[in-house]
Amino acid sequence: MWTDRRAFLAGAAAACLMPIAQSLAATGQNATPRVISLDYGIATTLLALGVTPIGVASADRWDRWVREPVLPESVVDIGQDLAINLELVARLQPDLILMTPYTLSLRPALERIAPVQVVTLYAEGGSPLVRARQETRRLAGLIDRQPAADHYLSAFEERLDAARARASRLSPPPVALVNFMDARHARIYGANSLYQDILDRIGLENVWKKPTNYWGFSTIGLEELARDAGGDMALVVFEPLVEEIKPTLARSPLWKDLPVVREERFAILPPVLMFGMLPSAERFLTLLLDHLEARYG
Amino acid sequence: MTAATRNYNGLVALILGLGAAGISYLLIGSELMQLGEATGAYNVERMILIYSSLPRLVTSLIAGVALALSGTIFQQALRNPLASPTTMGVSAGAHLALVLAGLFAPALLGFSRELVALAGSGIAACLVFGLVAKRDFSPVALVLAGLIVSLYCGALATLLVLFNDRYLVSLFIWGAGSLSQQDWSVVQSLAPKAAILVLAAGLLARPLGLLQLGDEGSKALGLSPGKIRGLAIAVAVALAAVVTAAVGVIGFIGLVAPTIVRLAGARQLRSQLLWSPLVGALLLWFTDAAIQMLAGNLKNFVPTGAVTALFGSPLLLLLLPRLKFTRPKAASPATAKRYHGPWLIPVAIALAVLGITVVLALGIGRDMQGGWLFDLFSHWDQIAAWRMPRILAALGAGVMLALAGTILQRLTGNEMASPEVLGINAGAMLGIGAALFLFAGSQSMLTACAALGALVILAGLFAMNRRSGFQPERMVLAGIALGALLDAFVGALAATGDLRAIQLLRWMAGTTYGASMDSALITLGLAVILILPVALVVRWLDLLNLGAVTAAVGLPVRKARFFLFALAAFLTAAATLVVGPLSFVGLMAPHIARGFGFQRAPLQLAMAALSGGVLMVLADWIGRTANYPYEMPAGILSALVGTPLLLFLLRGCPSHDTRQMTGNTARLRHSQS
Q: From the list B48, B165, B173, which residue is nearest A61 (CB)?
């Protein structure tokens, strides 16, 4: 732990960090730092480490996209991620602001209020799961919650092992993990995504083996789903489902006559944050395995 | 009687048809051959053929017919070779209505998409016609008004979309019309409506053709030209509306097809009404098939509607020189308000209003619980840090845009001219897009690239228009066409869901958000610096509209126009970097000044500048507080706020001077060309 912190302090962003380390030392080790998160995934990690953020971007949509862990009432909605309300953030007097590269354009403005740290989950090469673990440790260092992080990470590994055991007892067909974007198009998750890493880890097969984009998904039309539905698959559709989709799905023979739909080998599951960190990975695991066990156990 | 011209439309149709059929064969030929063999199991290729590819093909044909027919009718009824659903703002109006309904009243959409689209397109058409009624529907004014309405409807729709978070991209895909299908429902819904409207168009063919005799001739035959025109336009609007309701905005087919048909030799209306739908259908089929072939995996995501703009816009640019400017009728002397008092009084009042607005904007905000409070003194340090830069930036941008707008309106003699239409925003967008996608740039790099892009476009515009002597209206139309082109390009990019494209679209919404004190002071400084040349040339603005007299007074007209355009361009570019490409202020502020009676250039400029400042500060304030803590972009907000104001102002007394200016400018152009 000590080497981690020292190595971190020696890092490029060290200059920003010194005031934090000093102020935390001054206020006592277990004082809760006032942290603001511009990203849902980071916020879930903070909650997992026992720190409630004081502000989260687009907090009003949390239930729609993340759902679990539950966002406490005290968290302030600081506006939309690309246009955070700077006045409000200044008024909240945070000690630390966390963001992903998506909102880097806001960094100069936010650095006037508090030190900013960037958490990167998606980059060229490497796996989101591995990065999620690394960034969880780094976050813990920033907010002085290393013991909680250690505990959480080892518990997470245990859950992964247990999940692997559960999965090995089943013999499900390959899974297709999908979010509908509108009545005609869907996102399907494959290589480079958090989901894929999880599937690999617990030994399940993904239907989608074609190349994906930077964030680990491909955008396809319903037709293409039809094309790849020739074989056996367990189709998993995650909420939220745009309202206008439902009549189309009820009506379109492309969908209705899909073997996987006719034989009802598909399911609509509650929302999971697809670009999240470890807590979302856990939620994904639980939802998926519960469903597969119910269907194919 | 002219000698009969050869009609090559058959040849054109044949070529297009063969091309489209050829590509389609490559795409679906093999599956088509096997159509007869029915298999019990779910044969993917066969399902896709029957429920996706074929409906898509049929939809493209129907939509092509409807849009081309709509364009022909528009062009005939309005005697305007550039009229089309796109250039009349009709499609964009329908799209905006659909977006609004989708967000605020989804039940309406469930009830009838077509009615919502019809309402939107009808309102847009009325708006466009209302704006040019006083100018006797001059062709250029009409197209200008239509394209501007298109621009703003599209921008408002984009703004509404931006309220959804990044994970929701469906509205993007819809916005640039997509022909992608997954069952026959769209065909089943669209075909009967289109058929009825085509029938109605057929019935109107004879009366419409007789209108070519001129209004007096038609009246002599017992027809009411106004009614016929109105009916024809209604049919054309409806055709565009049902297509937009079905597949989204598919631009420029309604312009390209009738033009091709006319250029290929169809002179009579009946001939045009026959060939135009055919060519339109084949053209859209060809385009859609080509996209499917070229886009490969992305074929469901490159919206056909965007691609048609990519070839329709250049066509618009090519057609501009052919556009015959009909000389407007001599203006009847109308009483126009005119202010005759000392200039100090209105300027002082305006300054006071500006001061009060700034103070209120600085002081009134929202607190964490959402309540309102006036905390000018209690939170001065926060206000100075966060609100002051935005307000100063808004002020600077507003002043610059107002000045640019006034210069452009006086230069072109056209009330609808506004800074965005120079295409500056298109250039800046290009620059920013390049920076985002190629360099993943920082803020300052984005700014530099935006400026570079703007200058490149400007240079291109100037190069294109040098020969015509920088005829103002041509420059403006060229700018709009360029803007439409780049809009479509960015729209197609955003449809792929690429987050950088979404960031680009966000920037297009225009915002004072995030302005630091440095950038605010730079903006203000630029405004001050650029005011100096404006002050120098203010006399030219009055002189340039004297017509033939101008040359006698010794004013080098070409050089003066060039300089004024350049000035307007720099003003616009500087403001665009702050508030993004879209702001109604450049359009509204000159009107506000004129509406109060300030007709002479110096006073109009000063009052417009001050009004512009007030408007932009207001827009910024509303953007900051109305939807707390969510930010509404000031640039487009000014459009939301300004439309009713603009309509109200334009309804008022026709401006005597503008009409005279138009008459004189036309005479000048005529003598120069």
A: B165
